[in-house]
Every structure is written in C-alpha cells, then in structure tokens.
Design brief:
Layout (H helix, E strand, L loop, with lengths): L2 H40 L3 H5 L2 E9 L2 E4 H18 L9 E4 L2 E8 L5 E14 L13 E16 L2 E16 L28 E2 L31 H11 L1
Parallel strand pairs: 1-7
Antiparallel strand pairs: 1-2, 2-8, 3-5, 4-5, 5-6, 6-7
Protein name: Carotenoid cleavage dioxygenase
GO molecular function: dioxygenase activity
Pfam families: SnoaL_4
Amino acid sequence: MSDNIQTSALVSRLNDLEQRLTVREDELDIRKLQHLYGYLIDKCMYNETVDLFTDDGEVRFFGGIWKGKEGVRRLYVERFQKRFTYGNNGPIDGFLLDHPQMQDIINVQPGGEIALGRARSMMQAGRHKDYEGDAPHLKARQWWEGGIYENTYKKVDGVWRMHVLNYMPIWHGDFESGWANTPPEYVPFPKVTYPTDPTGPDELITDHWLWPTHKVNAFHMKHPVTGEAMIPQRWQGDIDRENAKKG
C-alpha cells in the first residue's frame, strides 16, 4: 500500500472518529440540558427554565401549545410561578415538586444542529398541611405523576437549547388512594386559548388523554434492530372512541 493511500485511509479514519466523538459530546450536553431542566423546575426556578429555550421554542403540555419565548414565559412564569409559589422565583416552604429525569434516549440528527430525545419523568408533589392557602389548589395534598417527553433540541451559537419541550403526563394518583382510583381527567385540560385565558396556550391539542386511557406516545426513532417504526397494535378502546366520535 502506498504512502498516499495509507495517509488517505488514516485521515478518513480520524474524520470518522472526530464525527463520532462530536455526536457523543452532543448527546452528553443534551442529557445535561434535560437533567438541568428537571432540577430547575424541581425548585420552581422558572425564570432560569425559560432561559433554556430557543427564541422560537415552544412547550406542548396538557393539551396545549405555548409558542415562542413569550408563550414559554407565560406558561412557566405567569401560570406556574404565580400558581405554585405565589410569584416567587424559587422554592417556598411546604411545597414539593420533584421531577426526576430518567431513561433518556438522544438522537442527534444529520448536520448536528437538531436532536430528538425521549425521556421519562415520575414526579412526586404535594403541599404540606401547615402551608395551605385559601384557593382549592393550595390545599394540603400529595400526589404522583408519570409522563413522557418527546423533545426537540437545537444548537444555537454552539450551545444546545430546548426547542420543543413536548411533555405528556400519562398518569396521576393521589398518595392516599393510588392510581387505581384516579378519575379520567385528574387535571382538567385547557379549553380556552390566549388571550381569552391570560396564561393559556396559543393553540389546543386535540389528541390528548390521561390514565385510565392508555396509549403509546409516538416514538421519534425507529426500532434499532429491525429498522421498522414502533407502532402498537390497535385495541378495542381506540375503536370504541372512534365509533363514539362518529356517533
């Protein structure tokens, strides 16, 4: 083998290794971003949470879409901060809101500027009996929540940011009675958009559901072995709901 061929092969191998290393570093950076998101909303640091997003980012949450940086701020600061912590940007005594971030799968897309990710959160939340407020949602209670993220991330000026945070809560359960007794719409879905609702979403999502309805959140990736889309078999519950809509 000539020196030129050997050099060309070495350069090709180095370029391949550099590309693979860049992808792995991007995956780690995105995991850090997602986990930091969990830590920030744990402690109700909503201003810092908003800063994780791109200017054209959005949040898909509980049947609504909050669009752009202003929409994201409307959700986290105007809605969550005022509702949960009386407007304080940070934790308050007696209020718990833990969001462990787990099972994250990150796939950086060709070009290296966009990535897709799937992850899980299982939240423990509650308000202590000694720190009740006057409104119904400020009364003492303790509950669980499990949900799935299917997020989009974007690299801006070399830094990965949240672009679309697509979080769908799957199930809830009061600590005392458990998820076997959860009513169908444990948390009411938004019915009104902004600006009629000053902190509401810009758009409503029609295909939303909560436990005990049980479906699969669509996977952004294909099966790693077969290369096929991972789509569950339809079951009678889906058919019944479709027939009910037609009727």
